[in-house]
Amino acid sequence: MKLYPIETGNFKLDGGAMFGTIPKSIWQKTNPADGQNKIELAMRALLIEDGDRLILIDCGIGKKQSEKFFSYYDLWSDYDIETSLALHGFTKDDITDVFLTHLHFDHCGGAVQQDTIHGGYELSFKNAKYWSNASHWDWATNPNPREKASFLPENFVPIKESGNLNLIDLPTSGNYLNNSPLGFDIIFVDGHTDKQMLPVIRYKGKTIVFTADLIATAGHVPLVYVMGYDTRPLLTMQEKSDFLEKAVQEEYLFFFEHDPYRELATVVRTEKGILLDSTYSFTEVFG
């Protein structure tokens, strides 16, 4: 097995929304805001090369939305998924599986692209199976008013219409699924959105957890640092508490999807609770 961080692009969101009830005077120490109160964020995917499979975890915002839509999110880097894959010798056609942690636009927008020949939409990864779960799929396709702006049908309905949608079974008990069809374990969490999936990957003697939107950046590690976007913030806190406890016990290495400057991190138990320990680039840990 080999892992590759895949930079799909960077964007900005309102810092207050990203940190909920935490005062700006505190959160800006780790995530400084610009003049519009927006903070810099990544949309980092993870590529798993495992035998004949090439599994992509999340795929960024994509390119098919309007100029007006993108103007809301201040895209600010030259990264895109094609060039990032090419750095490792791959193309989008090589991807065999696309695992979507959840269906918010900044995580799955790149799954579907415009069909410039026939009009409409087509799958961006034409040779891939796409993976979600039935509970989250129903949640996204029948959105509540709070999340409706984040669930854009053009990002995922074409997946089902293509016949390439695959649904992962939920755990029979608890929130932990051992040995999913993609070869890694999955933690299911419900505070941010219903049945978000966090991959747990064993790699070179480490346990890597793709933290998605449970812990968006290194600045979100403290327990009460919960996003205003979360649909069930008190549940997020309980899920984070359980997750952080397990992270200390099992020495998890966090893989951040949304931190533009810190790819990996560890946590440590202190008298003030479980907090950020050290951060690393992927190459510092794995070469």
From TrEMBL:
SMART domains (UniProt xref): Lactamase_B
Domain of life the protein comes from: Bacteria
Residue ranges of domain Metallo-beta-lactamase in the record: 42-258
Alphabetical list of Pfam families matching this protein: Lactamase_B (PF00753)
Keywords carried by this UniProt record: Hydrolase, Metal-binding, Zinc
PANTHER family on file: QUORUM-QUENCHING LACTONASE YTNP-RELATED, QUORUM-QUENCHING LACTONASE YTNP-RELATED-RELATED
Family: Belongs to the metallo-beta-lactamase superfamily.
Protein name as annotated: Glyoxylase-like metal-dependent hydrolase (Beta-lactamase superfamily II)
Organism: Moheibacter stercoris
Lineage, highest ranks first: Bacteria, Pseudomonadati, Bacteroidota, Flavobacteriia, Flavobacteriales
